[in-house]
Amino acid sequence: MATLSWIGGAAKRAQVQTYLFGGTWEADDIARLVIGNKTVDVTAGSTVTATVVSTVVTAWNALSATDYPEFAEITASANTTTLTLTKDTAGEPFTCTITPLEANGSAADAQTIGGAGVATTGTTATTNTGPEDVSVPANWSGGAIPVNGDTAIVDKEGARLKYSLDQSAITLASLRILAKDVEVGLPKTKTGTTPYPEYRPDFWKIGATSSYTNTNSGRLKLDHGSTVVTYEQDASGASRETNVPAVLLKGTHASSVWHILGGAAGIAFFAGETATLLTLNVNRGTNVVCGTGCTIGTVNNYGGTLLINSAIATALNHPSANGGTTTLEGSGGVSLLTMQSGKCVYNTTGTLAGDTVLGGSAQLTFDEDQKSKSVTEPIQIYNSAVVFSDSNAVIDGGAALEFHNCLPTVRLAPDCDIIYARMD
Prior knowledge:
Layout: E1 3-5, E2 16-22, E3 30-35, E4 38-43, H1 49-61, H2 69-72, E5 74-79, E6 82-87, E7 97-101, E8 112-114, E9 151-154, E10 159-161, E11 166-177, E12 182-184, E13 189-190, E14 196-197, E15 204-214, E16 219-223, E17 230-235, E18 247-250, E19 257-260, E20 264-267, E21 275-282, E22 287-290, E23 294-301, E24 305-308, E25 312-318, E26 325-328, E27 337-339, E28 343-346, E29 357-358, E30 363-365, E31 379-381, E32 387-389, E33 399-403, E34 411-412, E35 418-423
Parallel strand pairs: 1-9, 9-11, 10-12, 11-15, 12-16, 15-16, 15-17, 16-18, 17-19, 18-20, 19-21, 20-22, 21-23, 22-24, 23-25, 24-26, 25-27, 26-28, 27-29, 28-30, 29-31, 30-32, 31-33, 32-34, 33-35
Antiparallel strand pairs: 2-6, 2-8, 3-4, 3-7, 5-6, 13-14
């Protein structure tokens, strides 16, 4: 299969979209215009189709740029029964639907609008092109966009991959993002004179069996969909958005493995997003957030700062001496906790199940959240340097501690509610 590199060489060309009005219109019929989450209803005002088109054009171009900024970026024009929309900024696509409706908002009887998204009789629609559009062949070496089984490499400094990001039908053998100065994806809010919620795809949706990133990017948004992916991240940059990680990730296959070895990452970070992780490995010095939409099997924290807002189905491990902090929020439980170092802040109301094992210099605290917690099994302690704390006595029924091969001198908060402490 081919290896293709991003070159971003396409010239900018403005999108032109045509809509052919036809059928029989009544004066009280409606043309509904929709861009993103904004809707404008225009009353036909005539039974003459060309007049209806002219009325829609006049209404479109008169819309307030403050109230309808999505529409203000596009200029409407009429040619008898054809409505033409032209994007004011070349290289930036748009999506608009126009639907005919009866006066009461029900589906149209006789009037129809055709040609949305295609050429219509006597008129040619012009597709968007530009150096930031991933669907344009001229932006890839060899003049072809990647297809199934290809390797795609983004190593051109200054690369910006922003538009036509839904390539979810493609599964690459490998995706490698190596340029230090690179941006992939769009922010949730389109900036400008009047910001508005972004309605174009904001993640690059593309499957990849192997995905590797090593950049200084402040915005890198990847959605690997239902493909089994092994993702590895060696670095990231300072985020372009306040309180949002520089790298944002999604992917839903239950066998996917995610290695965050450097930088910051958010996985299913925003509300409503989902991701499935068979294994998540977090390295020393990293900063990772897993959102409420994550389904997680095993987590290995080798020294990073990790915030998890969902359940851990198999195990949470701190297997090395590199420390690190895992904070658990929300209501998801943890099936098994094993720590040799670092700190676990147990704020979730979900159950801590299985044999919790604390060794080395591990710290487990329930002190930062006062909602009640359930711990089903005794906590196993294998080193007197372990720190355990439940100073607010939030563990239902109190904590049960069992000491192995060490004296029961583990540092306990003064007010811990210990129901028993047994030493082997």
